[in-house]
Amino acid sequence: MRSPQLLLIDDEPALAEFVANAARECGFVPTVTSNDGTFREEFQARRPDAVALDLGMPVDGVELLRFLADEDFSGPVLIISGFDRRVLESAFRLGEAQGLNMAGPLEKPVRLEELEELLNRLKPALAS
Length: 128
Fold this sequence. Notes:
Elements: E1 5-9, H1 13-25, E2 29-33, H2 36-46, E3 50-53, H3 61-70, E4 76-81, H4 85-97, E5 101-107, H5 112-126
Parallel strand pairs: 1-2, 1-3, 3-4, 4-5
Helix pairs in contact: 1-5
């Protein structure tokens, strides 16, 4: 059985590594990016099974949601951000309205148990 691919974008290296390590522990193969250009390139090259993105980066996370919708991405999209819960929920609903399979959202600072629980819930559907 193939391990699911997770493409992650976050401009905070410590958090990106934290999420990548949790993903590895849950059986994912993570690819970490820190800007939208690299994210788009890796997305095109890898066609990941799942995506995790930070809303609060130099590039607008909502713009990346539109990109994923335009690419007809059907895998789960996990939002991880330090923004207020209302902003996270608005972005979540926006992603759903664009036809994306939204997961989470998770607020920073992310709790390891919460992240691993979510990743473990997503994995069975992706491993087929």
